[in-house]
Amino acid sequence: MNGFFNGKRVLVTGHKGFIGSKIAQRVSDGGGIVIGLDRCRCDVGDYEQVARIFDRDRPQVVFHLAAQTEVGRSHERPYETYRTNVTGTLNVLECCRRWPVESAVFASSDKAYGNGPIPYREDQFLQDDADVYSMSKRMADQLCQHYARTYDMPVRVLRCANVYGPGQTNGTTLITSSIRRWMLGEKPVIHGGCKFHTREWLYVDDAVDAYVLTASMPREDQVVVFNVGSGEGRMVEDVVRMISVEMDTGMDYHVEAGGETIGQIRKQMLDSSLFRRTFPQWQTTPLWQGLEKTVAWHKEQQR
User: Distance between CA atoms of 45 and 64, rounded to whole angstroms?
Assistant: First the structure.
């Protein structure tokens, strides 16, 4: 990153998570000083705890990724989800206002669009009829936009597609759960109401590149929100078939009869043309290649 992070104090919330850990490593490799915030060290939903970290460490760059990310758990625990995803975001934003930073990048999601028309565009309306997780991401997203414009803060929001790849351990995600089940000699399960749903997939290294590029944007650039996706949309069943070929287990998957699971959006595709115009050097990994690397990582972990 041309030395952007060299010598800078960089706060990464959720720094032990799937994406956060890779951003932290990238910052460290670039000569930055990583200030990690995770649930063991700090409750992001508690303003005083977050403020103490800002007051003591005075970060110059912030990546905010700490969140409740599981859709099912969000539905079961809405208060916990809103406290972490919405109040937590508000706390980080307010601290960025009180202790001004050079750059702050916040993780939103393509789920913020709900069942809106596709491909999603940054300027389209965010849907009200969303599940708890999607609504929490929408509310946090709008808070970021409000602070950026009201207080002239260098805040950017990334609405990423479904991020996957080596290091992902969340067993509720399609790709990770399918790989794990095949490795255990079990058939992956696809809910019947979801097998034809379309998702856009983004390889984790490409997502990290996007976060890092966004952090380095000039302060005077007025763009606040970016869609970040590969442009490669696939039906759920097709993705499982691709994993099956890569795993080469000779075992099929199981389609479970029944309706859709909680919070499922039928079609998700992003128009990422604004991000690609802003960062023409950004490239994405084809899904087949990303799955190949992901399966190889899981097999290595099993050894």
Answer: 13
